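Sanity check. The docking grid for LGGBLMCM depends on where the pocket ends up, so I'm generating a full predicted complex first rather than guessing from homology. Inputs follow.
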Amino acid sequence: MSDFPDFSYLQVISFPVVQLHMNRAAMTASQKDFENAMNQVKLLKKDPGNEVKLKLYALYKQATEGPCNMPKPGVFDLINKAKWDAWNTLGSLPKETARQNYVDLVSSLSSSLESSSQVEPGTDRKSTGYETLMVTSEGGITKITLNRPAKKNAINVEMYHEIMRALKAASKDDSSITVLTGNGDYYSSGNDLTNFTDIPPGGVEEKAKNSAILLREFVGCFIDFPKPLIAVVNGPAVGISVTILGLFDVVYASDRATFHTPFSHLGQSPEGCSSYTFLKIMGPAKATEMLVFGKKLTAGEACAQGLVTAVFPDSTFQKEVWTRLKAFAKLPPNAMRISKEVIRNREKEKLHAVNAEECSVLQERWLSDECMNAVVNFLSRKSKL
Ligand SMILES: CCCCC/C=C/C(=O)SCCNC(=O)CCNC(=O)[C@H](O)C(C)(C)COP(=O)(O)OP(=O)(O)OC[C@H]1O[C@@H](n2cnc3c(N)ncnc32)[C@H](O)[C@@H]1OP(=O)(O)O
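Predicted complex below; grid placement will be based on this.
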């Protein structure tokens, strides 16, 4: 389980390996089945994700200790609070049922993760060297696709790093234009809220500091990107995936797309230079509706307010957009790069200063109880946008 980094925090105890035997006739798992299932978990090659790990933790505790008997952790103790919630949710579920559910969950997990690992070799993901993105370069266009569709393309720490790596590569490759889009029904649901659960030894303060450094570097890559950068917004966009649109040169949207920056709801504050770009693009009142009151815009509204360049019916979106992009990519690349420089360069210094200030304000916000409560509520399934 070396590549299963977060499982240790669930404190699952290791047991000796014994042969798996499901007592299906009796429909309850034996102690041996249970111990085997625990061993199987440790042999999984892929991380099943935090939600499954919490379910496993809860079922393990219920099966071994019965109903939740721990005092409720404080709101700032994010990980223990999530674990407590998961266990407590099981109420008075009998130990035998919890044991059976644990064995069943591990069994389904082993088969689903095995089958997904069987299709991996030779796929795009492996050949491009990205785990969270698909990156292609063809016909003068480098296309970066956010590729965590099951998580609505939420941006986890790995994806932040991979987007930066892909942008740096695209700025130097022989393509003329660069496109960012999403795979699946969402463009992106914004920052992956589980990013907040991986607390380093220095505690939440260190986490907030590291996140602010990461965010500043991430947004900086968009400010400095030298070639025309186009967003192809295929579906709903949330949080940072919306705010950085102000740093793109052109934004095309499907009429299925929505634009949502619920920072106050999350106890957070604007980033991606939106506290500056949105005011310039749509004026202070409309920017306040979005950034302070979290008003969600339709694609048509976002277009009317200047955040989106053009909206297309979803049925013809890809065809119409890519026809345009292919034509743009045939224009002389140096002329396009220099024109972008002329248009954008005088704002760069200002944008970097705005970025630095937004990150420093956010660093404080992330430590607020408003923010921590919002994250805990999402992770414990008590809230959704
Ligand atoms: C370090 C730099 C920080 C930069 C600061 C950035 C700030 C922001 O971006 S703020 C915006 C943060 N985003 C959110 O608050 C969105 C949270 N997600 C939701 O409210 C909903 O998931 C939804 C409205 C986006 C979609 O709802 P629905 O259609 O019902 O789909 P599910 O909720 O079932 O989602 C499927 C699957 O994906 C997981 N997921 C979706 N978004 C996120 C996310 N942002 N972070 C983490 N996980 C996310 C969701 O939990 C589901 O997972 P499973 O249950 O495991 O299937």
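Relevant for the grid: Strands lie at 133-138, 141-146, 177-182, 229-233, 237-238, 250-254, 258-260, 297-298, 310-312.
Also worth noting: The domain at 133-383 is CATH 3.90.226.10 (2-enoyl-CoA Hydratase; Chain A, domain 1).
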